[in-house]
Amino acid sequence: MDLDDEPSEPAPRSRPGEWLEYSMILPVLAGVLTLGWLVSQFVTKPFLTVVSSLNGYLLVFLVLGLVLHRTPRNFLQAVTKAVPATAGILVQFPLYAAMAAILTKATGHGGVSLSAHLAEFFSDIGGGGAFAVVIALYTAVLGLFVPSGGGKWLVEAPYVMQAATDVNMNLGWTVQIYNIAEALPNLINPFIMLPLLAVLRLQARDLVGFTFLQFVFHLPVVLLLVWLLGMTFDFVPPVLPAGK
Fold first, then answer.
1. Which residue range(s) make up the domain with 224?
2. Minimal CA–CA distance to 164: which of 238, 219, 228?
């Protein structure tokens, strides 16, 4: 390792959509939020509990690295130079974990979690084709931000299946709706793209123009099919263990 290596300046911004990558807005915002969270942890929890939290260390050092590099572009360039084969995974997966924690653990008024609010929202839609289309759209949109290859079902399953039970939607078909719709954003941002981009030294924008065309073509086809098939299957109540 060359400890005398001087950081190189990032390439100048060439597209309007890149302005946020060259701005200090996100690092400053992330730093302030993390500092506020850290202060609240020390105020509300024992000192040893806070300093022994591995998740806390990961969050603080990830955000600290972002803040010290001043802009997201500088930070990503440094991470790519340090670990070129896995840079995208190391940076993105902590963000996916944070999204999952917000969905399952964050509570609002009355101590109700966000996942419970989502289940209530889906239940209000009703059953049949409308429920199938909304679930498909929700899964596809979330998949654009969390390309998990299906792993995010662990987060979505509790409230999606609860909503399906509340509206008497076939549970097996609900799972298939998720499988079908979850594959749609993979046409744009495939899960395998993360290591592929690192190996080929490409950027997502080099490929997304081609993959987006597949998404545009398949989206109406998939929504039409889930709407039609969503009205064909009867509801079968789940079998609960004895005593529940």
1. 110-236
2. 238
Question: Quick one: 127 and 230 in the same domain?
Answer: yes
- How many domains are contained in the chain? 2
Counts for the chain of helices (H) and strands (E), in that order: 11, 0
Distance, in Å, from the CA atom of 127 to the CA atom of 188, rounded to the nearest integer, reads: 29
pLDDT digits (tens, 9 = 90+) for 144-178: 766 665 666 766 777 788 888 888 888 888 888 88
Alpha-carbon distances, residue 37 vs 44, 58, 99, 149 (angstroms): 11, 14, 16, 30
- Report CA Rg, the chain: 22
Summarised one tens digit per residue, pLDDT across range 18-37 is: 777 778 888 899 889 888 88
Is residue 40 domain-shared with residue 128, that is, in the same domain?
Answer: no
Q: Model-level pTM?
A: 0.59
Both 121 and 12 in one domain: the answer is no
- For residue range 163-220, list pLDDT tens digits in order: 888 888 888 888 888 888 877 777 776 666 666 766 777 766 677 777 778 778 888 8
- Written as six digits, the tokens of 20 are 């946020």
Task: Verify that 119 and 158 share a domain, yes or no.
Answer: yes
